[in-house]
Amino acid sequence: MTLAGSNGNRTRNAPWQQGRCAAGFSMTELVIVISILSVLAAITVNAMNQYLEGGKIALTQERQEMLNRAVYTFAQQNYQIVFSPMGDNAGDELAILRTLQYRDPNSYRAKLGSPYIDPRYNPGTSSSTKDYRLQWTGKVFKVLEPGDSGSGLLMNFDGTDFTTPFAFPPDFQMAGN
What we know:
Keywords: Membrane, Transmembrane, Transmembrane helix. This is Prepilin-type N-terminal cleavage/methylation domain-containing protein. InterPro entries: N_methyl_site, Pilin-like. The strands form two sheets. Strands 3-6-4-5 form a four-stranded antiparallel sheet. It has a two-stranded antiparallel ribbon with strand order 1-2. By secondary structure, the chain is α+β, with helices and mostly antiparallel strands. It is built from two helices and six strands; from the N terminus they run E-E-H-H-E-E-E-E. It has one domain (about 25-155). The mean pLDDT is about 85. About 35% of the residues lie in helices and about 10% in strands.
């Protein structure tokens, strides 16, 4: 039996370690551990993709509800917005959005609760079938998922669609009159 140690500590080596320094993992053990971790990582990444897609759907539906709540609130305070969809052009969605964001600068003419949508919400538009979009149907907004054709307000999932407030021109005309 031999005594070995470092820094003055005396330890007793097990019989199978005599004549050999304390070693880490063998190459076989290392390959097995890396293989197991790789399989677990692949399973996790696949599960995360499903959660990410579910999150996108939930956020798009929440944004649709936000816009439609604003349309209904606007109708209670002003008039019902009836504005014909423009087909492959997203100009109708932007016109409705700006109407919902507008607050008359004259405090005597400003409607209760306006603006009905945060004026910092400035989404882009898209007609790509790869994007989530919000399309105006004539009375409310609906969700266009990837694969659906049509144009609408582009859903950004990174928050870049909230920027500086939109500056309304002095002669702004609300849509749907």
